């Protein structure tokens, strides 16, 4: 069966590009999408579409109710900011989300015998989330090495973040080279019921700027500006 990687597939552009790169690097992909009660439910359909387009070997969707935890505009009845970055860690940060997601991916990777976990975080054009930084990924790699049977046996899956040092424009160009179906992806934090992106939240702003700076057409369907 060759090498296997578990890829955290959110339905957004970054995870789609990271998955395509892992595929092109010779990994068979097991996609993991977490339905965590997020307000942008349309991203779950986007993840399904991306998984089909990339012909992943297996697509696992796990339900984890982070609305019970709250603390974020993505998991509670708090407005999503649409006025641009305000400094500091924004209210769209979901407490410990990447820690939880990587823990689920680690369990799946160990169960499937995967040698890598692929995550589409990047620290250049991002919203200031602490769990998108290299030092966080390095710390989690130590968890994988010390807290699993695979790790104790010297087979802990590597944590791969191929986009961590790329700008959004570089991610767009990378995706175009690898045939990523950007039209199937969704980056918006607060899309309309029909799936149209708002065009004004931080995620939409970063996506728009990435395509503009890459000199490429953005296939996103935007609703209200």
How does this structure look, described?
The radius of gyration is 17 Å and the shape is globular. It is of the alpha/beta class. α1 (13-24) packs across α6 and α6 (168-177) packs across α7. The protein has helices spanning 13-24, 42-53, 97-112, 134-146, 149-152, 168-177, 202-214, and strands at residues 4-8, 28-35, 58-63, 116-118, 158-160. The model has no long low-confidence stretch (mean pLDDT 93). The chain has a 5-stranded parallel sheet with strand order 3-2-1-4-5, sandwiched between helices. The protein has a single domain (4-187), classed as Rossmann fold (3-Layer(aba) Sandwich), CATH 3.40.50. The protein starts with a strand and ends in an 11-residue tail after the last helix.
Could you name the CATH class?
Answer: Alpha Beta
Count the beta strands. Answer: 5
* Proportion of helical residues: 25-40%
* Proper CATH architecture: 3-Layer(aba) Sandwich
Gross morphology: globular
| Individual helix count | 7
Largest sheet descriptor:
5 strands, parallel
In percent terms, what proportion of residues is strand? Answer: 5-15%
Order of helices and strands: EHEHEHEHHEHH
User: Strand pairing plus helix content: what structural class?
Assistant: alpha/beta
Based on CA atoms alone, the radius of gyration comes out at 17 Å
Going across the biggest sheet, name each strand in turn.
3-2-1-4-5
CATH superfamily: HUPs
Unreliable segments of 5+ consecutive residues: none
Primary descriptors:
225 residues, five-stranded parallel β-sheet, Rossmann fold, 7 helices, alpha/beta
């Amino acid at each position: 069966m060759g090498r296997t990687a578990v890829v955290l597939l959110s339905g957004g552009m970054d995870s789609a590009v990271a998955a395509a790169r892992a595929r092109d690097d010779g990994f068979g992909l097991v996609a993991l999408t977490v339905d965590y009660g997020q307000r942008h439910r349309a991203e779950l359909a986007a993840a399904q579409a991306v998984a089909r387009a990339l012909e992943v070997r297996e697509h696992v969707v796990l339900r984890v109710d982070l609305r019970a935890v709250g603390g974020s505009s993505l998991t509670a009845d708090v407005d999503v900011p649409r006025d641009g970055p305000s400094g500091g860690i924004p209210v769209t940060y979901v407490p410990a989300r990447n820690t939880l997601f990587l823990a689920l991916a680690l369990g799946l990777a160990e169960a499937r015998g995967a040698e890598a976990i692929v995550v589409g975080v990047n620290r250049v054009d991002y919203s200031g989330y602490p769990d998108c930084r290299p030092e966080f990924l390095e710390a989690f790699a130590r968890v994988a090495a010390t807290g699993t049977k695979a790790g104790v046996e010297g087979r802990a899956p590597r944590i791969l973040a191929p986009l961590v040092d790329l700008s959004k424009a570089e991610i767009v160009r990378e995706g175009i080279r690898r045939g990523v179906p950007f039209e199937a992806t969704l980056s918006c934090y607060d899309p309309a019921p029909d799936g149209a992106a708002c065009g004004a939240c931080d995620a939409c702003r970063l996506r728009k700027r990435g395509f503009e700076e890459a000199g490429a057409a953005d296939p996103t369907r935007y609703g209200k500006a």
